[in-house]
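Q: Could you predict the 3D structure of non-specific serine/threonine protein kinase?
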Amino acid sequence: MENLIGKSIENYRIVSVLGKGGMGIVYKAYDTKLDRYVAIKLLNSNVVDKDRFVERFKREAKNHAKLSHPNIVTVYGFIEYSNLLGIVMEYVEGESLEKVIDRQGRFNLSDVIYILKQLLQGIGYAHIKGFIHRDIKPSNIILNKEGVTKIMDFGISKSLYDNDMTKTGSKIGTVYYMSPEQIRGQDVTNKSDIYSIGCTIYEMITGLPPFDFTSEYEVMDAHLKKSPPKLSEKVAGIPEELEKIISKALQKDPNSRYSSCEEMLKDVQHLDKLITKINTSYFERIPQRSTKYKFFAISAFVGAGLFLILLMYFVIKQVDSILNSNEIEKFKKYSIQSLFSGNENKYNFTEINRLPSNILTNLNSISFSEDNSFATIVADSGYILNSFDGGNTWIKKNISSKINLSDVWTLKNGNTILVGDSSTILFGMKNLDSLISIPIEKGITFFRIKFNKNNVGFITGTKGTILKSLDGGQTWARTKTNTKEIIFDVDFFDEKTGFAVGWNGTILTTTNGGDNWYKIENDKTDNYLKSIDLTEKGYGLIVGGDGTILRTSDFGNNWEKINLSFSGGFQKVKFIDDEYCLIVGSRGMMLVSKDQGETWNVVDSKIFSNLNGLTVNSYGKIFIVGVNGMIFRIQ
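A: Sure. Here are the predicted structure tokens for non-specific serine/threonine protein kinase:
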């Protein structure tokens, strides 16, 4: 996207950049006709299905413009410029909840109630008008310099009365604030927004979201199965009434939550009356103090002693949490060189190098062509990285501002297939010179794509989905799985026998080449199973949540659990050859086995962020990708 600072689009003169994200760039602009500042969100319209995207964009802008409420950022209209589309909206001078939390740790109780009331009024108004936000989170709530709460980014909202725009199954929203029904790909209602409001308020009070895990899948699993720690366990002095309000908003079953924002608002207003007797909110006490970066000071009435006690409590809890979350640190760690050196080793890996990617988006998977001349990395927000020199350098491109791409596979003929959310299957000719969208049923998030030696392909996804292709990925058909659980990964011992793994410890097997799948009993774990890799000699490994490793040495007739006694999510497992195996996961976890997965050593990777995918190219170099644009090469 070209630099637009100083340029004019219609009657708007671009002044500065307000922010950048996966969906585009937000500019501050001056409206020369109406003599006011506005914010313009510009999105690149170079997408696979441009006509559909443009039409959808215009409809969403028009729908959002129908919302007129003091707690919702006003949309004025949309613009088209060159190859860009833009939403013109109210410019709010202020700070997001996310930035306030980052700066001061958390909010005081009076300010929480003050903001919550406005949030419920704004979202409740949108619900009455037939709109669901679907992505409520601290970064989408801004406080202007007068302390007014403004809800932003209805760009992914859908009209409840527009059936074409309310398809389920797309993973819309941010995982820390997503409702259980969003994670399952089920219908999203106003109660889903109420759940996200509960998550947001929980973080305002404690400084952390309800489920603060490093792995996305651990967070998703917690939303579905676990109860968050009580507010009173995190912060002293929380009223029981507030505990009940947040607890009701965070119920797993939508029918057990508040039926509407108005119902929740009544309880909050009742609580506010109790709070007011003790402590008047900052905004009512000092309305004239409106400095941009000082919305929320600790109430003067709070004594220094109480403040120190609370601060000590908060610090102790944080330190304790950090210490307890790093169980893997108890294990002896080995350098790559020490694990792959000596006459008995087949490989001579000596170091882990980080390669520049020039991107901060989460990288999810990597694939090389058979001759190593071409490689692809897929990422969130429609980003792709390509390499034409064996993975030494990477070139960024973007196919869409919304699609999160989860996996990629390069075939022997050079064709490449990419999969992701919103039922996305993209077919690319050699070197991805062009991309074709493969039509498939709507409402599915795809996670993994694999082809066997006979060029038969499989894709896994939500709603128990396993797709099969017999023509090199140009067409796909659903197989019979008899489950609605999320299926994360699939692999085969031979052309007939294979296994698939997924949510809640799900293990499926097939003996007819993947046309029919049957669930097998798994009494080893009910955690999510994220990755599977099998060899022609009958060895296989499955990895997943809480450090789960399952192993077979008899073509999957029996699976044993390898007990390593540490928590954390594993993301990918791969046999480097018939004996050597590698696992990567959260917080830079990297494990190596030299005996088909029977015993494991922890690598001192010097990496402390989540690792998502790995592959081995034809030259025997290992490539690993992770969050924040991280690419590592072991050589």
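Q: Anything worth pointing out?
A: The domain at 8-90 is CATH 3.30.200.20 (Phosphorylase Kinase; domain 1).
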